[in-house]
Write a structure and sequence with these properties.
This protein is an alpha+beta fold. It contains ten helices and eleven strands. It starts with 6 loop residues before the first strand and ends with a strand. It is found in: Cytoplasm.
Amino acid sequence: MSKMNRLKTIVKAPASIANLGPGFDILAMAIEGLYDVVEVEVSDGEGIVDVKTEGIFSVPEGPENVAYRVAKSFLDYYSITNIDLRIKVVKGVPPASGLGSSGATSAATAYALAKLLRKDINESELLRLAAEGEALVAGTPHYDNVAASLFGNIVLIDLDKGKVYKIEPRIPIYIAVVLPKTPLRTDKKTGLARSVIPKSIDLHTHVKQQSSLAKLIYALMVGDIKLFGEAISADFVVEHHRAKLIPYYYELKELALKLGALGFNISGAGPSTFFVHKSYKEALSIGEKLISFLKDKGVNSDLLVTRISDKGSEVIHQ
């Protein structure tokens, strides 16, 4: 790489909800309202990567930050050795919440580096490099959250080819997220939530799960939000095992559906939960009742009522 002047860009990436019930590791949707902002500065140097953090949420700096892992992977992949990177991560997505916090940072970092250093990068390469950040927190790379934070809307992942299929819903969908103020744990929380999932399932369970996933995709294709909600609620593989990590999960789900939520499940690895509705007003009302229910149980939580974000990572300052 030739000598360069100091270059800088600032990118924001949205939070995301992975799995959407039956779509473990292959489905996710970007949501409005919560974002990570990553500033990347490039200068001539010797391959030094320096990562600092700001924002209301505390996350590690330096090599323990996912931005560092993504940046080093990016430099190694393209054999770039004659530059230094200074990265500032401003956390707006709460960590260990199940809202793709590490995925948002990873996506924004990879996108910023691509804009500065490799404008010819294709989507598959961008996705793979962003997913390296997830390997730091989950033990292995996974693509769902980073894909949603990179590309926006709802994404379906082809794991073998590293290809992303983007789905733009044909109907308005409101998402209410219940965020417990006390996370499960902040250290390797995603790895913990993945460790409780069975390594294999029987054929009957597989068929039921495939049916639910197909129903979800069909509902998006035809714009049937009621069917979409039914599919979100019907996970036969992951939900039962992760529910044990979330206090009062099934009571909360039962109450949400009784009050009129169209579909309810765990957001990503948890502990946040989410439901969908066709009305903002109704989603807000139901969400407030869920918050009150949890408060009576001694669990303080926040509520976010939002929409699917049609934007993924984007440059906000060059």
